[in-house]
Amino acid sequence: MKYLRSFALLALAALSGHASTLLMVLAPAQQIGIPGAQVLFQGTIYNPTDITVYLTSGQVSIASPDLLGDPTPLLINAPLFLDPGEDPGLIDLFTVQIADPFLSGNGIYAGTLNVLSGAAPDGREFLDSVDFGVQVGTRTGLSGPYRIADRDWSGLETPWCKALALCWTPVDCEWRLVAGAYREVIHNALGALLIRRWTLPKNGRRPLQRTR
Amino acid sequence: MNATAPIPGTMLYTPGAGTVLPAGAGQTLRVDFTPLDSANHSAASKTVTIDVNSAPKPGVNLIVTSLLRRDGTTGEAIVVVTVANTGGTAAAGVKLTSVKIGTATGTPGTIQLGAIAAGGQASAEVRIPSAAGAPGSPGVLTISGTYTGGTFNSATRVVLP
Description:
The complex is a heterodimer.
Chain A: E1 9-10, E2 23-26, E3 30-33, E4 38-46, E5 53-62, E6 67-70, H1 72-77, E7 81-82, E8 91-98, E9 107-118, E10 126-136, H2 147-151, H3 159-163, H4 170-190, H5 195-198
Parallel strand pairs in A: 3-10
Antiparallel strand pairs in A: 2-4, 4-8, 5-7, 5-9, 6-8, 9-10
Chain B: E1 2-3, E2 9-14, E3 24-35, E4 44-52, E5 62-70, E6 77-85, E7 91-101, E8 104-105, E9 111-116, E10 121-128, E11 138-147, E12 150-159
Antiparallel strand pairs in B: 2-3, 3-4, 5-6, 6-10, 7-8, 7-9, 7-11, 11-12
């Protein structure tokens, strides 16, 4: 008669630390700004698990003393929790304020968005992170009026440029500024005719806030 | 995986022995044991799962967690703030510059935490006026800080103790 003799498995221990739970994607993950500007990062958060995950904390850590992250948009725009398989769509996640003067020097600065979540409303046992970058430039050498750049660079991004990820070179950055300057001139000339257009949400599909 | 058996036989691993797994949770490891003496022993298998985390990346990544309780005498909310460095580089000169619940600001306003090694953490206690809200009311705890070469900011949904 055959019989099974037990055998032992020495399983590898999982690495310590928090497990990743959510899938987060920034769109785009790198933004361009100038001193005094505030850049907005949007993205999606997807819950691929089979449990409800409560989003309890958003955090931004960034490698420049002249850049100040603000994760408040995440708490405002994301639902209190994500059901299994839920994706609230493209939402505002956080902003980065660029100090003026910006003493760190032109360049790309790396940062991380951290989201703490849990299986309970006050849970924070899960940690998910996604990296981002802020490219800081200056106004030097720009032609035309550039007040528009002081307000919101993200409005200058053309869809094709964004889709092809061509926006992140200095040359393209300047091109966008010049294009934005001309758009500003047109905007000022047409005045009230365009006001309504400019006050629409940028992507036209800002999600409704949910209260649960 | 390194399976053993009290009798001679062959272990077949899936994925193969020596495989370096990518980062990810819930990955399956399987071993199939075939005894040499198959006349008297049965084959057996075992499956386990493993979570593989990414190695810390170079740089500083500061993550803030907090515990709240209420001072029964003064009514103040006491926030124990812990700053953990999950990056691969030590953070020097870490300090908390602001701890708030809503618009109620905690004291002391600035707290020096010093250096936090990669994988390390440091904690401090902040007291927030009772005006932050009644026990059981929801709020947003915002914590800001700096370190040499960077900043960190957090916003957390909390229920006041």
